[in-house]
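Anyone up for a design puzzle?
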């Protein structure tokens, strides 16, 4: 679905991404992992068209992303820290987003509203909602328009165990239905539970990309957390 070739980005003197080559396969869950300042956020912003590369190319279904925002209608995005208009209610926000994204579409994926038990909360101003409830609204918006690709940045942050389980089950069902996911999380066990593929970034470079199973074989480790730590340790020793 997504092909990234020799992608580079610099902010001032800091080279954030260095010759990134990466593929995101359709119908799979790809985890983007790496320590802070590895370049994960910049890479996600480039896929979303929010930041332009200094070199290289990014293709979405074979079409180069070159400033035309049309492809974004096929993406659902769940940012780590959403900034909602505080004066709106949840229902007003959903209506606003529907007018902007799908004014002619009558079928919306509202499944998470019921599963999270959000119906009553959506009548309240967003500023009055708890952080966990706002995160549930964040998840609802990501899935609402039935996107082909979902980019979820720390999706379970702030969710209680029940809500986290609801969201992870939704991801699994959607993946089984052919949706494509890009996930980031600092909770390695969570990524291990959901991911098919892993892209490990360190200091702006891809150190590994491939199936989660292959990463474990490559490092001879039994968990994603230990596999990532093994690569980082070996690079520090080199």
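Challenge accepted. My sequence:
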């Amino acid at each position: 679905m997504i092909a990234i070739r020799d992608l580079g980005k610099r902010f001032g003197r800091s080279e954030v991404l260095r010759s990134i080559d990466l593929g995101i396969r359709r119908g799979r869950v790809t985890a983007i992992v790496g320590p802070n300042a590895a370049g994960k956020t910049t890479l996600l912003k480039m896929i979303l068209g929010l930041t332009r590369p200094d070199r290289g190319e990014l293709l979405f279904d074979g079409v180069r992303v070159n400033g035309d925002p049309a492809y974004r209608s096929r993406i659902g995005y769940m940012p780590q820290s959403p900034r909602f208009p505080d004066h709106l209610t949840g229902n007003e926000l959903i209506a606003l987003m529907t007018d902007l994204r799908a004014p002619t579409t009558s079928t919306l994926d509202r499944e998470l509203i019921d599963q999270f038990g959000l119906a009553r909360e959506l009548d309240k101003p967003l500023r009055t909602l708890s952080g966990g409830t706002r995160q549930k609204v964040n998840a609802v918006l990501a899935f609402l328009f039935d996107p082909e690709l979902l980019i979820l940045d720390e999706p379970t942050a702030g969710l209680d165990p029940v809500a986290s389980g609801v969201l992870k089950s939704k991801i699994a069902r959607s993946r089984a239905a052919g949706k494509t996911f890009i996930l980031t999380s600092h909770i390695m066990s969570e990524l291990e539970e959901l991911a098919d593929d892993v892209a490990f970034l360190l200091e702006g470079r891809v150190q590994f990309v491939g199936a989660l199973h292959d990463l474990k074989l490559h490092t001879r480790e039994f968990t994603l957390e230990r596999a990532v730590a093994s690569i980082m340790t070996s690079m520090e020793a080199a």
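A detail worth pointing out: The two ends are 35 Å apart (CA to CA).
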